[in-house]
Amino acid sequence: MNTNSFIFQTNVQGQYRTKWKAPSNIALVKYWGKYGEQLPENPSISFTLSQCFTNTEVSFSEREPGGVAFDFLFEQKKQPEFYPKIQKFMERITTYFPALKRHHLSISSHNSFPHSSGVASSASAMAALALCIVDFEKQFHSDLTEEAFLQKASFLARLGSGSAARSIAGPLTIWGYTKAFSQSNDHYAIAPSVEWHPIFLDYQDTILIVDKGQKKVSSTLGHALMQDHPFATQRFEQAHKNLGEFKRVLIAGDLERFIDLVESEALCLHAMMMTSNPHFVLMQPNTLSIIEKVEDFRLQTQLPICFTLDAGANVHLLYPLQHRIPIIDFIREELVIHCQKGQYIEDQVGNGAKKILV
Ligand code: DP6
């Protein structure tokens, strides 16, 4: 793909203020391994969430040309630990948004979920920031279609954090080239107009907070571990194959196969981390207790609940809305004891980012 098409020939100038709400997402096929400038080694697919989101407001003001310039408030406070990631993101995207060299950005961000909950916030945060930036650009580009707007937002978000590319649209997004979806590519995520089975459109994701601490492995290090990984080739092939199968499963509503695939992807992600050099065991005793209880509960009740994991100890439980009541009862009675401070977050599939009037 010629990425020059993302450099719009427009003279963006003046003051502008905008605010966007971008959701988090949970991957069904996991992105683990990258190359080049934030390009994925394998395609991934995720559910867009709705209750876990970041709200970001940006005020752009014109200044003397130079490097990137911004100030940043998170939850109304200056939090310098976030600056390097934002700085790097802005430097990376300047090629695609040259007006950054002539504007100061005042950024203020808020998460709907506690930052220290162990729920990854970089996806929603980078997506919200990217949307504010493309929104500014759009003011000088009246013929920008909705599709081109979303593509560029996903493209920029990816340069901040790979999984952020999937936090723009919904209910399901695919990032990375796969022969299963004709528009798919490594540069931005797509939300194909496929008739997904309706059961998935309000699918539930209850996030059990097993560990609220800092990530043991940064995503940068984690992805790098796939470079000389002994099982890398097989893993990338498996992800391609699983993605193709997910397409059928998500259209047909085949919950039995959905469960097999989701759990296999989660365990495979952790298997990659456990067999890399250095290795990381990110599951904790409580993670395993939850997995065991979920499997027993599924066997006893025949309810279609399954688990998935990101690069940490927390467990996402996925299940259809129609079974929410018995499953929430089960979570409260059996699983909350495995959560740090009894914390869990109830979320469900959503439709993507939204502009908020300021
Ligand atoms: C395990 O998107 O956090 O959550 O591109 O380095 O920012 P960077 O990585 P990041 O990786 C997420 C990996 C994952 C799986 C996934 O969401 O697909």
Distinctive features:
four-stranded antiparallel sheet; 8 helices; Ribosomal Protein S5, domain 2; 2 domains; about 350 residues; binds ligand DP6; seven-stranded mixed sheet; alpha+beta
Structure description:
It is a single chain. This protein has 358 residues and is an alpha+beta fold. The protein has two domains: 3-197, Ribosomal Protein S5, domain 2 (2-Layer Sandwich); 202-348, 2-Layer Sandwich (Alpha-Beta Plaits), CATH 3.30.70. It is 33% helix and 22% strand. It has eight helices and 13 strands. It has helices at 83-93, 122-138, 146-160, 219-224, 232-252, 255-274, 285-301, 324-335, and strands spanning 16-29, 34-35, 39-40, 44-62, 69-74, 77-78, 103-111, 172-175, 204-208, 306-308, 315-319, 344-348, 354-356. Strands 1, 4, 5, 6, 7, 8 and 13 form a seven-stranded mixed β-sheet that branches. It has a four-stranded antiparallel β-sheet with strand order 10-11-9-12. The longest helix has 21 residues, at 232-252. It is globular and about 65 Å long. The model has no long low-confidence stretch (mean pLDDT 96). The structure holds ligand DP6. Ligand DP6 binds next to helix 4.
Q: What layout of secondary structure does this protein have?
A:
Elements: E1 16-29, E2 34-35, E3 39-40, E4 44-62, E5 69-74, E6 77-78, H1 83-93, E7 103-111, H2 122-138, H3 146-160, E8 172-175, E9 204-208, H4 219-224, H5 232-252, H6 255-274, H7 285-301, E10 306-308, E11 315-319, H8 324-335, E12 344-348, E13 354-356
Parallel strand pairs: 5-7
Antiparallel strand pairs: 1-4, 1-13, 2-3, 4-7, 4-8, 5-6, 9-11, 9-12, 10-11
Bound molecules: ligand DP6.
Ligand DP6 is lined by residues 27, 30-32, 38, 44, 120, 122, 161-163, 219-220, 223, 269, 310-311.
